[in-house]
Design a protein that fits this description.
The complex is a heterotrimer of chains A (337), B (324) and C (454). Chain A is an alpha/beta fold and 337 residues long. Chain A contains 12 helices and 14 strands. Chain A has 2 domains: 192 residues, Rossmann fold (3-Layer(aba) Sandwich), CATH 3.40.50.970; 129 residues, 3-Layer(aba) Sandwich (Rossmann fold). In chain A, 61% of the residues are buried. With 324 residues, chain B is α/β, with parallel strands linked by helices. Chain B has a single domain, classed as 3-Layer(aba) Sandwich (Rossmann fold). In chain B, 45% of the residues lie in helices and 10% in strands. In chain C, strands 9, 12, 15, 16, 17, 18 and 19 form a 7-stranded mixed sheet that branches. A 4-stranded antiparallel sheet of chain C has the order 1-8-6-3, with no helix packed on it. A 4-stranded antiparallel sheet of chain C has the order 5-4-2-7, with no helix packed on it. The longest helix of chain C has 19 residues. Classes of the chains: A alpha/beta (337), B alpha/beta (324), C alpha+beta (454).
């Protein structure tokens, strides 16, 4: 076991996979930085620091800085994947998925199906998402619910350095297109990472707290918030299963339903506005398949139906919090059946 | 004089004749209502597809448009499997899952027809990135029309290709109509698409897309430039489509007598016959023989497609992922 | 543990007060989760109150034997808080449920008065139209006399929904907590989270299992199957999963016992004349067939027992479709003898034999077991003397028949020993009153004791 941050875990994983397989290439805006300038490469190594050092090791043929052209970046990743490479493209902010949406939605996601299963598109798109750093409405969105809804894509969101490494390795080596979501406020989060090869299968959630009274289902940054809420509730003898989904597509249905069948109470925590959200998706799944086990209606802790505000106090009010999660769990416990 | 030998000429004619016969027959069959969905016919533009693809091998890449049957045949896709795909049959080229607009055979470098105008250009640049890394002189061709040349994706792709100096070739088939609107209206640089490519920093050629030899010779220079590491290139081919944007298009945008005129004056098969007549190495009878073989092939393709079984319902759920 | 109020709990909708019968620990003593802290008595039960978490009984307020209303403060749980803090807590305490408990009692008194008094039409309260409330919630609130004026609705913009009104009518939740679990250690086995936890609990080595879950993952079912097949060392327990049929029987009978207010009317009848008549007719029909014929006629005479109960509606059935209980090796089946009141004894004998045979050879069709307005269950052939049967919903009643035994009876002042059948009629008290049941039994008894009409 080695202690490292999520940023380091991602950086090391990309480097190891590029070392292992010459077909792995990386592309994106400023993943090197400094091309065509007096200062020269590597000016930044990615604005989040996740791709530092790759250019020096693997060169401009395989570590490709691009102009600001999200459609071309994602489309090039898709085309290169059809032509035998394993590209890892970066969308600097997940919000920019809008600029490139056709290439993800109508092209990359659908090639295998439309072409009768006779091809594969093993591209990984890294998207940096999430609120909490006052980046305001166009640079803070979560996006993963919309992408989860697209058949043909897989969606992964690590909450720990070990999962960042395990899920990214799995994404790169897998043959399907993957959207890999990295939370901008979590790059510095440190944790233990197994040494050597470490793969985490998709569709396999992680229980980070265990208890028999409330099931809390979540992913990404909300995992840490949910753990805080669970620990507070444990002081009053209330036990929570906190399920870190790790991937929303494929979804670990069994982990969710098995837990709710024991606790009878569901709280879903989603860092997004409520309509057509991941929270709504999971609540519907549980209501449909574990209805008789439920002792209270599913509780959904989400952001409100608004864009993300700028001022610190407003953004804090917009986001879910451990207190809001705790209140939802208590509301479920207080439901009179 | 052409540098093409006899066999190459016959081969080129066969390709163009196959495309023409394929599309003409589809035009008739679609009227019966048996073919589902939207179909966009390529008849009239054969010289463009064949003039480009005769320079390409199986490991070169092409990305096509919604009007993709011609590119598909020219790149070497199986004609009968294509017909079955258009008829939505279980053993169509894409198992009936894609249809006319998404017809593909990635194993021979045909990275798909595409239902989104302009989507092909970034994909082709991606394939060109891969080709450059492989270092074997492979190229990647993006077919676009005068419609796609206005999409943001086309501009992004051209710039990226130049910045990365990848072996991408942007072929603009200017058939003067993007859907129901004329090129003189919709393209700001009216009828001059090639200079857009030049403005992005790549060399651009122009040729007659209704004359196989004009296209072929220009493309020879393009490919020399690109395969030898000269960076991306573009070519604008002036051509005509004999049918509407889609089958069922009333074509009210055509001028009086326009359809007859272009069939008469800009038919690439007629032009080919005249040219080889001048060169004197292929006879008219030989071309007729190719025509009847092609007619036979198309006849078989249609009758086999009509009697082939449709895909079973379970196919709906298959081939979404490699593994889930 | 932070300071927490221990109040008189509300067990069941009708409870309004309870008695703190005995403290099982002392003021100032610590207690562990699960430990019994007090005994509380109501007029129906005495219950042990267990601690839900570790803590300390920092202050006792209720004396042993004291009766207090629901929601009253009995004691304070806590940790090492100073006495002044505990005093402040006690002073600030307000019973939460007091109002609702009181209003429940008032309603009960009002209802009782209404039964005896001449019902007067109270003026319906004008509903405040400014309150945002769904139609169903408004109807329910009016019907149940719930004051919604101060209610915070859960609908959009604070709109009051049916769920909010229903919540207000129910007692406060007193969930029994399972508490936090110790985290299960990491494992390299590819198993679902619950599977790992169950494996630890049942002492199963995950490495020994092959997974049948998605992508070959070991799932809960795999672990439970392994747990089921692990025999404890002091004797093998054979675990047999219920067949679908047994599950269905289990479910139906559980529902029947839970939801139908059964009452039982018992009567014994002389069977001597019946047995003689049967002897004389050459024993072509079984005793049960005679009983079926008698039941069919009795149902015609007392149609109040020939009913089905559907929610708040009673269906009076046009004919006596009698379900006959047939024991098969797969479980109890109840094929229906249709329009029994139109059949002669011989016809009943033939039909019941045919149904029983088909039942035992699993050849019954859906239409054979549908419907039925009344059931007869006869365990006499097995030697059972008397028993009470469970009603098969939606039927209204079931007759249980035991074996005929020689018993002394009073025959016009003399004691004689004659064969006697013990009958037990189970009735659904929602739809059948004691008088109806009794009249049916009387009619039935007369038919059995004077069998000429059969």
């Amino acid at each position: 076991m080695v202690v490292m941050s999520i940023r380091e875990a991602i950086n090391r994983t990309i480097a190891e996979e590029m070392e292992r397989d010459a077909d792995v290439i990386a592309l994106g805006e400023d993943i090197v930085g400094g091309m065509g300038t007096a200062g020269g490469p590597e000016a930044i190594g990615g604005i989040w620091g996740a791709t530092g050092g790759l250019y020096a090791r693997f060169g401009p043929g395989r570590v490709i800085d691009t102009p600001i052209s999200e459609s071309a970046i994602v489309g090039a990743a898709a085309g290169a994947a059809l032509a035998g490479k394993r590209p890892i493209a970066e969308l600097m902010f997940a919000d920019f998925v809008g600029v490139s949406l056709d290439q993800l939605w109508n092209q990359m996601a659908k090639f295998r199906y439309m072409f009768g299963g006779k091809t594969r598109c093993p591209a990984v798109i890294r998207l940096i998402y999430g609120a909490g750093m006052n980046a305001a409405a166009q640079h803070s969105q979560s996006v993963y619910a919309m992408m989860t809804a697209i058949p043909g894509l897989k969606i992964a969101l690590p909450a720990t350095p070990a999962d960042a490494k395990g899920l990214l390795t799995e994404a790169i080596r897998g043959d399907d297109p993957v959207l890999f979501f990295e939370h901008k406020a979590m790059f510095g989060v440190k944790g233990e990472v197994p040494e050597g090869e470490h793969r985490v299968p998709f569709g396999h959630a992680r229980l980070t707290r265990e208890g028999g009274d409330v099931t809390i289902v979540t992913c990404g940054r909300m995992v840490g918030f949910s753990e805080k809420a669970a620990d507070k509730l444990a002081e009053d003898g209330i036990g929570c299963d906190v399920i870190d989904l790790r991937t929303t597509s494929p979804l670990d249905e069994e982990a969710i339903l098995d837990s709710v069948e024991l606790t009878g109470r569901l709280v879903v925590v989603d860092e997004s506005p409520p309509r057509c959200s991941l929270a709504a998706d999971i609540a519907a799944l549980v209501a449909a398949k574990a209805f008789t086990a439920l002792k209270a209606p599913p509780q959904m802790v989400t952001a409100p139906h608004t864009p993300i505000p700028f001022a610190r106090e407003l953004e804090r009010a917009w986001l879910p919090s451990p207190a809001k999660i705790e209140a939802a769990a208590r509301a479920a416990l207080a439901f009179r059946s | 004089m052409s540098q093409l030998g006899r066999d190459d000429m016959l081969r080129a004619y066969r390709q163009m004749a196959t495309i023409r016969a394929f599309e003409e027959r589809l035009h008739d069959e679609i009227k019966t209502g048996e073919i589902a969905g939207f179909t966009h016919l390529y008849a009239g533009q054969e010289a463009a597809a064949v003039g480009v693809c005769e320079h390409l091998a199986d490991d070169d890449y092409i990305v096509s448009t919604h009007r993709g049957h011609g590119h598909c045949i020219a790149k070497g896709c199986d004609v009968k499997a294509m017909m079955k795909e258009i008829y939505g049959r279980a053993d169509g080229l894409c198992k009936g899952k894609g249809g006319s607009m998404h017809i593909a055979d990635v194993s021979i470098g045909m990275l798909g027809a595409n239902g989104i105008v302009g989507a092909g250009a970034p994909l082709a640049v991606g394939a060109a990135i891969s080709a450059k890394l492989d270092g074997k002189g492979k190229v990647s061709v993006a077919f676009s029309g005068d419609g796609a040349c206005n999409q943001g994706t086309t501009f992004e792709a051209m710039n990226l290709a130049v910045v990365l100096q990848v072996p991408a070739i942007f072929v603009f088939e200017n058939n003067h109509y993007s859907e129901h609107t004329g090129v003189e209206y919709s393209v700001g640089t009216a009828n001059d698409i090639a200079s857009r490519a030049e403005a992005f920093g790549m060399k651009a050629w122009r040729a007659n897309g209704c004359d196989f030899f004009s296209t072929f010779e220009a493309m020879r220079e393009v490919l020399e430039h690109v395969r030898s590491g000269g960076g991306p290139a573009a070519i604008e081919l002036d051509t005509e489509r004999f049918y509407g944007h889609f089958e069922g298009d009333p074509q009210r945008y055509r001028g009086p007598g326009e359809l007859d005129r272009i069939r008469e004056q800009r038919d690439c098969l007629k032009a080919f016959r005249e040219r080889v007549g001048e060169y004197g190495n292929v006879t008219s009878d030989e071309l007729d023989a190719v025509d009847s073989e092609v007619a036979q092939l198309i006849e078989e393709a249609v009758s086999e497609a009509k009697s082939a079984p449709p895909p079973p319902p379970e196919q709906v759920l298959e081939d979404v992922y490699v593994s889930y | 543990m932070p300071l927490k109020a221990f109040t008189m709990p509300k067990w069941g909708i009708e409870m309004s007060e309870g008695t703190l019968a005995e403290w099982m620990t002392e003021e100032g003593a610590p207690f562990a989760r699960g430990q019994v802290i007090a005994l509380i008595e109501t007029d129906k039960i005495t219950n042990e109150v267990e601690a839900e978490a570790d803590g300390k009984l920092v202050r006792i307020l209720a004396r042993a034997g004291e009766t207090l209303p629901v929601g009253a403060l009995l004691a304070v749980f806590g940790g090492d808080q100073p006495a002044a803090e505990v005093d402040a807590f006690v002073a600030a305490f307000r019973p939460a449920d007091a109002r609702m408990a009181a209003s429940d009692t008032e309603d009960m008194i009002a209802d009782a008065a209404a039964e005896t008094a001449i019902p007067s039409e109270p003026e319906p309260e004008a509903f405040d139209d400014r309150i945002s409330i769904s139609p169903a919630a408004r109807a329910r609130a009016t019907e149940a006399r719930v004051d919604v004026a101060a209610m915070a609705g859960s609908g959009r913009g604070g709109r009051i929904m049916l769920q909010d009104v229903e919540q207000a009518l129910r007692p406060a939740a007193e969930p029994r907590l399972n508490g936090p679990f110790a985290p299960v250690p990491e494992t390299t086995a590819f198993a679902s989270p619950v599977a790992r936890r169950l494996a630890l609990r049942h002492g199963i080595d995950l490495a020994s299992l092959s997974g049948t879950g998605p992508r070959g993952r070991i799932c809960k079912e795999d672990v439970l199957a392994a747990a089921g097949s692990v025999a404890p060392s002091d004797g093998a327990v054979e675990v047999v999963a219920m067949t679908p049929m047994r599950k269905a029987i289990a479910r139906r009978l559980t529902e029947a016992k839970q939801q139908i207010p059964h009452f039982y009317l018992r009567r014994h009848v002389r069977a001597d004349r019946l047995l003689a008549a049967r002897e004389k007719a050459g024993k072509l029909a079984s005793i049960n067939d005679y009983l079926l014929r008698a039941v069919a006629i009795a149902l015609r005479e007392v149609p109040a027992v020939n009913i089905q109960v559907h929610g708040a509606a009673i269906h009076r059935m046009p004919s006596a479709d009698i379900a006959i209980a047939v024991a098969t090796d797969k479980g109890l089946l109840t094929p229906v003898l249709r329009a029994a009141e139109t059949l002669s004894l011989q016809e009943i004998a033939a039909a019941s034999a045919e149904l029983a045979a088909r039942a035992r050879s699993s050849k019954l069709k859906q239409e054979d077991i549908q419907g039925g307005s009344f059931s007869v269950s006869n365990l006499g052939p097995f030697g059972v003397e008397q028993f009470d049967a469970i009603i098969n919903p939606p039927q209204g009643a079931i007759l249980a028949v035991g074996a005929a035994r020689p018993e002394p009876i009073d025959d016009h002042g003399a004691v004689r020993i004659v064969p006697v059948l013990h009958l037990s009629l189970s009735c659904d008290h929602r739809a059948i009153d004691g008088a109806d049941g009794a009249r049916f039994l009387a009619a039935l008894a007369k038919l059995i004791e004077e069998p000429e009409r059969l």
